[in-house]
């Protein structure tokens, strides 16, 4: 399906390449549960990604350059990966509640998409959303 959204490369891979990547290779690359820095398009994000039996967990701590474009690209990819791997949910945890330089546009976008601020055990206050695929 063609869209008007430009293709964003994630660490040099297109979304299609990541979707075709063998599960073991993708899990070793991204779904380690460890914090990692990913280059997405012209921006970078600090996040942690885990594959749990019933969901993919996407936890974002910081986005530099690229803002909402990075989140849109990552959101599409997370939904596609969950669907392709038979995982029914994507859980989003976005640490944007207590930022030194808050991005008000990001907050509006998150709230419009259904994210709510929750106190998460062991993680503190964060925007939280569970997306059913």
List its salient traits:
133 residues; alpha+beta; Aminopeptidase; 6-stranded mixed beta sheet; 4 helices
Can you walk through the features of this model?
With 133 residues, the protein is α+β, with helices and mostly antiparallel strands. It has one domain: Aminopeptidase. 30% of the residues lie in helices and 34% in strands. It has four helices and six strands. The protein has helices spanning 15-20, 23-29, 67-84, 104-112; strands at 36-40, 43-52, 55-64, 89-94, 116-120, 124-132. Strands 1-2-3-4-6-5 form a six-stranded mixed β-sheet, with helices on one face. A hairpin with a 2-residue loop joins strand 2 and strand 3. The longest helix is centred in the middle third of the chain and has 18 residues, at 67-84. It starts with 14 loop residues before the first helix and ends with a strand. Mean pLDDT is 87; it is low at 1-6.
